[in-house]
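Render Transcriptional regulator in 3D.
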Amino acid sequence: MLFRLYRITQEIQLGNYPGISDLASILEVSERTIDRYIEALRDDFGAPIAYDRKRRGYYFEYPWSMPFSGLSEGEALALFIFLNVAERFRGTPLEEAFNRLGERLSLALPDNLQMSREEFDMLLSPFLMPLAMRVDVSETFSAIFRAVTERKRVLIRYHSLSSREVSERKVDPYHLYNFEGVWYFCGFCHLRDEVRDFALDRIEEVKVLEESFERPQDFSPQEYFNRAFRMYRGDLVEVRVRFDSYQAAWIKERIWHPTQKIEELPDGGVVFTVCANPEEIKRWVIGYGAHAEVLEPEYLRKEIQEEIAKLQKIYHSDRK
């Protein structure tokens, strides 16, 4: 209702003397509803609305704008952040809906807190999207979103990066999510007989089936995400990593995972313990170079040694 009141205020401020039928058409409501809105503006907000019989429309007896009392700078900033969230849905069927909602929400800002997109971008970047989609996933997103909402099974042709093969799978889609700018959904894969993650840009074909499914009552998206260090789930093991004093400060100041434990060492370093997928931890540790050393498990130490040996072979060879 609040945004419809703002819309009525806007139309009257244009000075075109809109009548009840005009406002009802603009807001797509009944004339009786417009009557109630006009009364609410007068009684609840003190709007100086008057009716001009000659022009058959409403006007303000003196300059007036819709009040939005008590909106702090922090609350205004929170509203701007929400308006910015539409960027996450660019290229999906929800983009237009988010943009329309953003336009309505922007009406809630008083004149002294209005800000252009350029001004907001100079002030704050609430969401960084380092990865850009190379494949248009709008149709796939629409199909998966409908399947998640209606709890319908899907049949997909999926290109797996691990196997480098395309397979056909029936999946019960549980949840859609965005990670570093890429859209995924998780669901029960009947081919693998377990819950898996699927990147929408690697789905070559998708068909929403008439078969229904029941999402497990104990499924929680947050708990599911917490099982991964970043993205990889399954095959979780306890990994211990020693970071030297140079890197320790960075490691200590963040909560990397709910299972993490940090032991401080006399030399200023730390031992970081976490329960995670070893392949994902291996990639993470290698990124820190000589500042990180896997202590356990032993097989992971050997895998990293083999990786280092391959790197040495590459960088010690003469370039032609």
